[in-house]
Amino acid sequence: MDFHQIPSISYILKEIKRNDINVPHDLCVLISQREVEIAREAIRSGKNITKDKIIENIKIKLNFLNKSVLKRVINATGIIIHTNLGRSPLNDSVAKEVAEIATNYSNLEYDLFNNKRGRRDLLIRDILIALTGSEDATVVNNNAAAVYITLNTLLNKKEVLISRSELIEIGGSFRIPDVITSSGAILKEVGTTNKTHLRDYENNISELTGAIMKVHQSNFYQEGFVQSVKMEELSNLARKKNILFFEDLGSGCLIDLRKYGLNYEPTVQESIQKGTDIVSFSGDKLLGAGQCGIILGKSKLIERIRKNPLMRVLRVDKMTLCALEGTLRLYLDKRYEEIPVYRMLAKTIDEMIQDAKYIISNVKNKNLTLEIFESEGRLGGGSTPRSFFKTIGIGIKHKILSTKDIETFLTRRSIPIIGRVLDDFYFLDMKTVYSKELDFILQALSEMS
Ligand SMILES: *Cc1c(COP(=O)(O)O)cnc(C)c1O
């Protein structure tokens, strides 16, 4: 027991001031009290802990709080839609429009033609219709919300048929069976894990059935003795039996990914052409906008969803709508590669080699060994789980620091750099790095003593 090692809060605050840490007073007090409590607990359980160590821990924590805690980072993982790193980044000029809308008043709910109250989700309805060929469209907070409000509005207390191979978990606790159940719909599993036939759906349709639901197997794939039912067949069956056909598409892919060397990902347009009554997808995966969920489909169904009181609970903010509109306009103009996700997909091996060489030839640090490596990147964000693409990056070794130390150094920079451990190296993949970020990496590596 060595409680006298625990410094007083006023002593700690004085120390912090001396160290030029620029964190608001109330945050300093909170972090100091919490750290002192942790130290007290450690001493109680017999650990040795010194005053200097306590102060050091507080300083590290406060350093994280020096600037905003939600920070820009450099994605050098080679995973383009990285859920931990905020999924897809926005195009710069779209982001400027968002800033304009955020810092001014807007017509979010004001109808400028009729000079009366308007509806926010109607603003971009026509853009979505023009792009996808659907009858109607609305937007909610994310795709989980889109699935939830669709089921809750159209399928409450009704059975929803879904193949056992599509009862998926997306991660972060989104599980299709749980969402269906909590929405008020009744889950009716059909088929088996590997094979589902048309008759499996047919034999389970009764007067309780409200819909056939198809969930895109976004983050895994099945191989071997597998079979599923074609979209057209499901849509015909649904029509014949007078029930709905709803697809949760996951990633909102609007263009053919094969031209980027990836496996084909079913597109939104295709889902509508093949006869879905309702289709939902995310705004911040392949679409490349901000977090939102888009619901497309038959007007009379979308109109019912719009009238659900949950719409108010799940509605999107003006900044989200603005980011979505700006991004969708890039699709309308076919300026796909101005959307960062597609710009990165299009980044060539030569461009990546050039970037790596630029960094390697300009870093000034005798302790470092830097090598150009080939590696594999992924689209990520629960899209095209089977597709890997060749990438180029920089393998980093340090005379004294371990790969773990390198990682800590890079992630504690004011603009953290996130790569990964690759064998004995720490690896920075150039596929997902913007040209404007090369000098930050260069500087970080030069300062890694
Ligand atoms: C990603 C995904 C979701 C969840 O979407 P969020 O936008 O993260 O809420 C739901 N279903 C499928 C099939 C997905 O891939």
Question: Can you give me a brief rundown of this structure?
Answer:
By secondary structure, the protein is α/β, with parallel strands linked by helices. It has helices at 9-18, 25-44, 51-65, 92-103, 125-132, 143-154, 176-183, 198-202, 231-240, 268-273, 299-307, 310-313, 318-332, 340-346, 349-362, 403-411, 438-446; strands at residues 74-75, 79-81, 110-111, 116-117, 136-140, 159-163, 169-171, 174-175, 186-190, 209-215, 244-251, 278-282, 293-297, 368-380, 383-398, 417-418, 420-422, 425-429. It folds into 3 domains: 3-64; 74-85 and 343-446, Alpha-Beta Complex (Aspartate Aminotransferase, domain 1), CATH 3.90.1150.180; 92-336, 3-Layer(aba) Sandwich (Aspartate Aminotransferase, domain 2), CATH 3.40.640.10.
Q: How many independent structural domains? A: 3
Estimate the strand proportion.
15-25%
* Heteromolecules bound: pyridoxal-5'-phosphate
What is the CATH homologous superfamily assignment of the largest domain?
Type I PLP-dependent aspartate aminotransferase-like (Major domain)
What percent of the residues sit in helical stretches (DSSP H or I)?
A: 25-40%
Helix/strand class: alpha/beta
Tell me the number of strands.
18
Mean residue pLDDT: 94
CATH architecture of the largest domain: 3-Layer(aba) Sandwich
User: How does the major sheet shape up?
Assistant: 7 strands, mixed
* Uncertain residue ranges: none
Q: What would you report as the Rg, rounded to the nearest angstrom? A: 26 Å
Query: Alpha-carbon distance between the termini?
Result: 38 Å
Query: According to CATH, what is the topology of the largest domain?
Result: Aspartate Aminotransferase, domain 2
Number of separate helices? 17
The spatial strand order of the largest sheet comes to 5-13-12-11-10-6-9
What is the assembly state of the chains in this entry?
A: single chain
Assigned CATH class of the largest domain = Alpha Beta
> What is the 3D form?
globular
Main location: cytoplasm
Cofactor: pyridoxal 5'-phosphate
Subcellular location: Cytoplasm
Enzyme class: transferase
